[in-house]
Amino acid sequence: MIGILNILKPTGMTSHDVVSSVRKILNIKKVGHAGTLDPNVAGVLVICVGKATKFSEYLMSGDKEYVCELKLGQSTDTQDSYGIVINSSDKDSVTIDELNYVLKEFTGGLIQIPPAYSAVKLNGKKLYEYARQNIPVEKQGRMINIKDIKLLKFYGKSALLKVKCSKGTYVRTLCNDIGNRLGTYGYMGILIRTESKGLHIKNSVTLEQLKFFNDTNRLNECLIPVEDIFQLDKLNIESKYYDRLTTGNEVDVRININSDKFYVYCRDSLIGIGKKVEGNKIKIDKMLI
Questions:
Q1: Helix, strand, or coil here: 30?
Q2: Over the stretch 149-206, which tens digit does the pLDDT of each residue have?
Q3: Residue that finishes a domain, picked among 227, 244, 278
Q4: pTM for this predicted structure
């Protein structure tokens, strides 16, 4: 069994909980997720099944889309609604023009400082471990890219935003920073991941639905083939090269290849993602067999 699942993670479950549930439902050990979601966040959790777990790094590198609630007038130690309020402002509401103006400033490439309560590592230790021990540390900023922010709803003291962003973006930190820029404070309320690497929430399945599909032998209705996820060129190789390629050796295919990464097909099946070594020589970078 090999493929990708677009699972709708509910709040209250960790990403590992979902992975464990998928293992039990499909009765397969080799299952992993491609980009974690916090327990209090719902939405698209990309699950890799079988040897598709080798492609998790490709999936994690894709853009993400979220719908989030921005709450104004206060900030919390975790930058979301689950934390302790540490600041309050007399200015707890803004105008829609003020908000739209600031949202434009937060579009594009930005340096973002990860929140204290996060899994980002510093000197081999996760930031939340320092925070729980009240150990102050100097956090390094990271380059992120906010591709787009849309204001969906505006209530004066809160707003609903749709955010399309690069890997590594902390939406709660974005809400915190927007609040500061508005001359008040801000934190994140609800958060739903609506898209990850092109997989949209409207096409996701719950764990209950996955069990139904599996029990009724209709798993193919939700298990997505690897080649449907990555937009890569396809290269068909003569069958005589099969043994060399599948044992990790390079071959000279004498074909002009313009892409650095591509699907490699041999003996009428996908055997992996290939990469150029030198000239027209290629080898398998991620094996699928």
A1: coil
A2: 999 999 999 999 999 999 889 999 999 999 999 999 999 999 999 999 889 999 999 9
A3: 227
A4: 0.87
Q: Give tens-digit pLDDT for 38-93.
A: 899 999 999 999 988 888 877 777 789 999 999 999 999 999 999 999 999 998 88
Instruction: Please indicate, yes or no, whether residues 268 and 180 belong to a single structural domain of this protein.
Output: no
Selected catalytic residue, list 17, 38, 90, 92: 38
Question: Which of 42, 6, 37, 43 is closest to 22 using CA atoms?
Answer: 6
Mark whether 76 and 183 lie in a shared domain.
Answer: yes
Number of structural domains the chain divides into: 3
> Residue 153 sits in a domain of what CATH number?
3.30.2350.10
- Residue 45 and residue 95 in one domain: no
Q: Decide: 120 and 167 in contact? Cβ < 8 Å.
A: no
* Share above pLDDT 90 across residues of the chain, in percent, rounded to a whole number: 60
Task: Give CA–CA dist 282/266, Å, rounded.
Answer: 13
Per-residue b or e along 51-86, where b marks 16 or more CB atoms closer than 10 Å to that residue's CB: bbbbbbebbbebbbbbbbbbbbbbbbbbbbbebeee
For residue 117, what are the domain limits? 64-190
Do 71 and 167 sit in the same domain of this protein? yes
Judge whether 80 counts as a catalytic residue.
no
